[in-house]
Amino acid sequence: MAERLRPAEKFKRDRVPMREQDPKERIKNFNEVPFGYSLEEAIAEAQRCLQCKPPSCVEGCPADVHIPEFIDKIIDEDIEGAFKEIKITNALPAVCGRVCPQEEQCEGACVMNKKGKPIAIGRLERFVADWARDKGLVDEPPPEEMKKNKRVAIVGSGPAGLACAADLAKLGYDVTIFEALHKPGGVLVYGIPEFRLPKAIVQYEVDQIKKMGVKIYTDYVIGYIKSVDELVEEYDAVFLANGAGAPSFLHIPGENLNGVYSASEFLTRSNLMRAFDFPEYDTPIKVGKRVVVIGGGNVAMDAVRTAKRLGAEEAIIVYRRSRAEMPARAEEIEHAEAEGIRFELLTNPVRILGDEDGNVKGIECVRMKLGEPDESGRRRPIPIEGSNFVMDVDNVIIAIGQNANPIVARSATGVKTNKWGYFIADEKTGKTTHPKVWAGGDIVTGAATVILAVGAGKKAAKSIHETLSGQ
Amino acid sequence: MAKILKKEQWSDTIFSMLIDAKDVAKAAKPGQFIILIPREHGERVPLTIADSSVEEGWVQIVFQVVGKSTLELSRMKEGEDLYSFVGPLGMPSEVEKFPGKVVMIGGGIGIAPIHPIARKLKEMGNHVVSIIGAKTADLLIMEDKIREASTEVIVATDDGSKGKKGFVNAVLEEFLATEAENVSKIWAIGPPIMMKACTISAGKFNKSIIVSLNPIMVDGTGMCGACRVTVGGETKFACVDGPEFDGALVDFDELMARQRQYKELEQKALELYKAKEGIA
Ligand SMILES: Cc1cc2nc3c(=O)[nH]c(=O)nc-3n(C[C@H](O)[C@H](O)[C@H](O)COP(=O)(O)OP(=O)(O)OC[C@H]3O[C@@H](n4cnc5c(N)ncnc54)[C@H](O)[C@@H]3O)c2cc1C
Ligand SMILES: Cc1cc2nc3c(=O)[nH]c(=O)nc-3n(C[C@H](O)[C@H](O)[C@H](O)COP(=O)(O)OP(=O)(O)OC[C@H]3O[C@@H](n4cnc5c(N)ncnc54)[C@H](O)[C@@H]3O)c2cc1C
Ligand code: SF4
Ligand code: SF4
Ligand code: FES
Q1: ipTM of model
Q2: Which of A30, A146, B275, B276 is deepest in the core (most CB within 10 A)?
Q3: CA A463–ligand 5 middle distance (angstroms)
Q4: B92-129 pLDDT, tens per residue?
């Protein structure tokens, strides 16, 4: 058991850094970049927490993780206790600890952030979850007497679907998830790369949810094999968590040339289908010497870092605003910079150039400047006339966002969508316009974050429980 | 997981399999396809649903060995499980009772996908004329089933070893020369070059034609955009917006270029697999 520090000592200490793979080495492999804390490092970091009452950090966490409580247990070296504390509210701690934009959430809200030294809540959460996995801790199904004779269908096994399933299973509901792909996990398996979120970890968290009695049917595309209308007939409640899985394109000339990928295709090939391990795995991926990725979010960072690891000599981000406006997590941008990614900021593509065989050979871009703020409050980028230039490139990867995929919605009578095709759902409960149907995650909000999807899944679970149990 | 219930070899390179997939069989409509992964580590392979039985709970696929995945699939045995099998996918064919005659053209392996559409059309009371063609008589598949599903059948082979000698689009032109007024709908399914030729032939008689596109696909649910094709100057995702489109609007040259995207890598995968398995 480690000692409790006095506040003055807490303020003196710095955040415990996390060790990570050397950038020169890691660009040659797909292993995870950060190594995670050791027990000693975790304790040292935990000792800095002020144990605020009320804790402002929790307000920043959409899953209401019991942050001071779990951190306090780390100091006691009661890691199992810390794990159970986290699991009360968050079914996916190993994932969230790794991919949450903590600087905008828990850590952003931590009082110590005022001094620029927020508690490394994400790293601690990750440490606890990894420890539990090493020890093989398993979640138990609820006791028989908790079992309710009510069935809930969930469409999609991304973070929203998984979180909702976990909470309902804990309450004794009979839960079935329908997943279109052959592996559960949603963006966690097909989008976010191995070097940021190892797939074995996602699999483990999914297995935990299965151990609680949740059934997952993969290869099951709702909208084709079964409609939402049929699910409504067969189940007591339905939760729609099918994500925002339809890639946006730029609609500029040359976009269908060979060598142009949507980030979704590029990352799905590499992550889900494991093309990075071709020909051990059969799915091919083609990366040339110079790769340009269009966009400035997490998806763009993942694509550009993947391209580098797949052998691109030069991997370049083209983003139309400046670094300050880039929506990616701070850590991802830093990691990309350390890995030698080139950033062409305030730059926008105009057209993609091809050779006579239909392969990409270059991209024409224009320089931009920032004008007045637009509706989103960000300064609007304006092209600078006459600043066009051409780069020779072998691949262009488009990472400018996702749209709503209509397959689920068109099979759901009575569930209203907005003009972009996203389900209309109550922010607090996830209730849609159909009394037996709830919705949450990216298919309601548009592309957002893992933890917001988890939060939406939890809210829907609570509301479904209240409705089905008549509370 | 889906079990291979029955496997038949129809020619050197063409195989048929019945797959145990009750829910898929129940939902399947003409024109739709499935995606399978033969074994773990495998890739996602789209194949058209050639037939299905709700009572017996199976889906039939008919495929031609062209590379590593189809070769591996062809070597799997009855009783083995496919690693993954998902469907039905894509928009169903728009079938109804049309006035006059409907012409169904199947080229090579494309004969398999016209079968469920022809059968459905006939069930609905249409007069179905099927034109089926292959390189040689040995490669001509499903003739009996097509005859059952059609009112008239015209057979053609490139070398004349069976039926008329020549390409199916020539047969189509010959047919339209006398029957154009009676024809209200034409479908053509086969290699892109054949669908392109049929589109041109139909165009000579001012006839529109529906083709079923087979670009490279990954998820098959509109999530990745790998399958994008240009139709009428607009980008469409063949897996969800199609696979059937109005042939006259399709940019076939782009489709063919995109299909060649992974040629060297596919070749390498095939050679490695053959070496590993000791196949000549
Ligand atoms: C490359 C990438 C990197 C990202 N990085 C981060 C990050 O670092 N931090 C962060 O917080 N967020 C990140 N995000 C965003 C985050 O992953 C998403 O906001 C989150 O996954 C949304 O969860 P969801 O459950 O709503 O949907 P998804 O994760 O999209 O899951 C939806 C699931 O539903 C399935 N489905 C779809 N249609 C059907 C159907 N018809 N029938 C059955 N199943 C269906 C899909 O196959 C999928 O498995 C990233 C996203 C991407 C693409
Ligand atoms: C909607 C649709 C329906 C199809 N129906 C049938 C069918 O009923 N019978 C049949 O024999 N074939 C069908 N195909 C084609 C079949 O999917 C390919 O022949 C198969 O994927 C080749 O895989 P391979 O590894 O054996 O060959 P590879 O060596 O990988 O490739 C050989 C050629 O096949 C094509 N191909 C490769 N990968 C894919 C992919 N993921 N998706 C589509 N095409 C690919 C490419 O043009 C490539 O050059 C269909 C394709 C689509 C898109
Ligand atoms: S779930 Fe995310 S936001 Fe919540 S405490 Fe963990 S890292 Fe922070
Ligand atoms: S706000 Fe920061 S210091 Fe306070 S309890 Fe939360 S993590 Fe600890
Ligand atoms: S195959 Fe991915 S969108 Fe069509």
Answers
A1: 0.92
A2: A30
A3: 34
A4: 999 999 998 999 999 999 999 999 999 999 999 999 99
